Amino acid sequence: METEDSETLTDQNLLRDKFREFARETGMLGQERVDLVNGTVDELIEAGHAEAAAMAEWKDAINENWADLLELIDTRAQLLTTSYELLRYFDDGKELVAQIHDKQKELPDDVGEDFSKAESFHRMHAAFERDISALGKQVQQFQETAARLHAQYAGGRADAIQGKEREVVEAWRGLLEACDGRRAQLEDTAEKFRFFAVVRDLMAWMESTIQQIETQEKPR
Question: Quick one: signal sequence residues (predicted)?
Answer without folding.
Answer: none
